[in-house]
Each structure stands twice: as structure tokens, then as C-alpha cells.
From TrEMBL:
Sequence ranges assigned to domain 4'-phosphopantetheinyl transferase N-terminal in this UniProt record: 36-101
Job description of the protein: Involved in the biosynthesis of the siderophore enterobactin (enterochelin), which is a macrocyclic trimeric lactone of N-(2,3-dihydroxybenzoyl)-serine. The serine trilactone serves as a scaffolding for the three catechol functionalities that provide hexadentate coordination for the tightly ligated iron(2+) atoms.
Organism: Siccibacter colletis
Molecular-function GO term, any one: 2,3-dihydroxybenzoate-serine ligase activity
Protein's recorded name: Enterobactin synthase component D
Family indicated by similarity: Belongs to the P-Pant transferase superfamily. EntD family.
Lineage: superkingdom: Bacteria
Subunit and interaction comment: EntB, EntD, EntE, and EntF form a multienzyme complex called enterobactin synthase.
InterPro entries: 4-PPantetheinyl_Trfase_dom, 4-PPantetheinyl_Trfase_dom_sf, 4PPT_N, Enbac_synth_compD-like
Keywords assigned: Enterobactin biosynthesis, Ligase, Transferase
Domain 4'-phosphopantetheinyl transferase residues, every copy: 110-192
Length: 221
């Protein structure tokens, strides 16, 4: 599979970015995955994005000081990180993102999400699913364009899910958290009810990097 590797910094962590060509993936490329058989019946686009995400994750692990191994896949299809390390993977359009770090007291969770920037019509179509009534007020107070604010909130909740899931061990929805402060670079989320070991009211910081076409959010804690 044809890929281009670059990196960027977000929230004090180095993010690995792989831009890939979906239709360049071959069956032989997939054999580097420890769970390659699970992708036998996936469409080529899905195979490519999954492979790119796992390759980016291996690079991220090596950069963090671990063995540069490709994470396996868990019971909920989540990536399995080596003991002592945390990480997160995202992919959108033809881009895969991954971040990994050594787990420590000051950094015990991380989640990353990348999204193509929604247009106004698409943002309107998901706003009631992604936002609760209080967040509509937060959105208006931010002064950000409507579509950008909705994309940021949607993406931040995806990042929060990925950050908390390894310890929560179960699914939770967009209603689990509220964005309580919002700008284009940094904002806060608060849990509305307990999620695994995390109590209601627990707060997490999200960081964002925006361009004209897409954005990336990262939650760390």
C-alpha cells in the first residue's frame, strides 16, 4: 500500500500521520496484521484504512519507546496496546492518525479523532444527536461558525470515548459527556454520569488542530 508519513504535535504529544491510497492495498500487505483473517471479507477501502491505522500505531509505539509492533484487536475491536503503554488510532477519508505514550501518573489515558469538516447541512443533520441542550448554548457562546463548532464537539466526544474505553470497558454514547467550554484550540468536557471508574462530574481537556478541510481532536489525562 502506498503511504506518506508525516508527524505533528498536539497537546504535547507527537501524532503520526499516514496518508494512504486505498486502492493500492494488496492481500500481501494485510499479512503484517496479527488479525489479518478478520479483514478477509472487508471491502478494500476498509482494509486500507485499518491497515494504515495499525501501521501508524506501530510507528507511534516505536516513537514512544516501545517495540514497534502492530497492535492486535480486542473483543470490542479496540486496539490492544503493549503493557505500560497507551495509545489511540483514528482514520478519516485517506488519512490515518495514531498516538502512543508510556503510561505514567501524569498521563494515563489518550484518545484521538480526525474528521473532515462538516458542511452546514451535514452539521444540522447530526446536531441533535451529538449535542445536548446545554451544548447548544455553549456552541452559541463560542462565536465559532456553526459547522466548525458541531464538528469539534462531535470529534471531541469521539476522542473522549477512545480515551476512556480501555478503563471503562463498555460502550457509552454522546450523552455521557458535555462540552462546557469551547474554542478552536482547547476546550473542556464533563461527564454527565459515571463511566466505568470515572465519576459523574469528572472533567477532561480536549485539544484541537483545525484546517480548512479537516480537524483533529485529542483528549489526554
Amino acid at each position: 500500500m502506498h503511504t506518506t508519513h508525516t508527524t505533528f504535535q498536539l497537546a504535547g504529544l507527537r501524532v503520526q500521520r499516514l496518508d494512504f491510497q486505498p486502492h493500492s492495498v494488496s492481500p500481501a500487505d494485510l499479512l503484517v496484521l496479527p488479525h489479518a483473517a478478520l479483514l478477509n471479507h472487508a471491502v478494500p477501502t476498509r482494509q486500507a484504512e485499518h491497515l494504515a491505522g495499525r501501521l501508524a500505531a506501530a510507528i507511534a509505539l516505536g516513537d514512544a519507546g516501545a517495540q514497534a509492533v502492530i497492535p492486535g484487536i480486542g473483543a470490542h475491536r479496540e486496539p490492544l496496546w503493549p503493557a505500560g503503554f497507551i495509545g489511540s488510532i483514528s482514520h478519516f477519508q485517506r488519512t490515518a492518525l495514531a498516538v502512543a505514550a508510556r503510561q505514567r501518573a501524569s498521563l494515563s489515558l489518550v484518545g484521538i479523532d480526525g474528521e473532515a469538516l462538516l458542511d452546514a447541512a451535514s452539521a444540522q443533520g447530526i446536531v441533535d444527536e451529538a449535542l445536548n441542550p446545554d451544548e447548544h448554548a455553549t456552541l452559541r457562546a463560542s462565536g465559532l461558525p456553526f459547522a466548525l463548532a458541531v464538528t469539534l464537539i462531535f470529534s471531541a466526544k469521539e476522542s473522549l470515548f477512545k480515551a476512556l474505553f480501555p478503563q471503562a470497558g463498555d460502550w457509552f454514547g454522546f450523552d455521557a459527556a458535555s462540552v462546557v467550554a469551547l474554542n478552536a484550540e482547547r476546550f473542556s468536557l464533563r461527564l454527565n454520569y459515571p463511566v466505568g471508574p470515572f465519576p459523574a462530574g469528572a472533567c477532561f481537556e480536549a485539544h484541537a488542530l483545525c484546517s480548512e478541510a479537516h480537524l483533529v481532536t485529542l483528549v489526554r489525562g
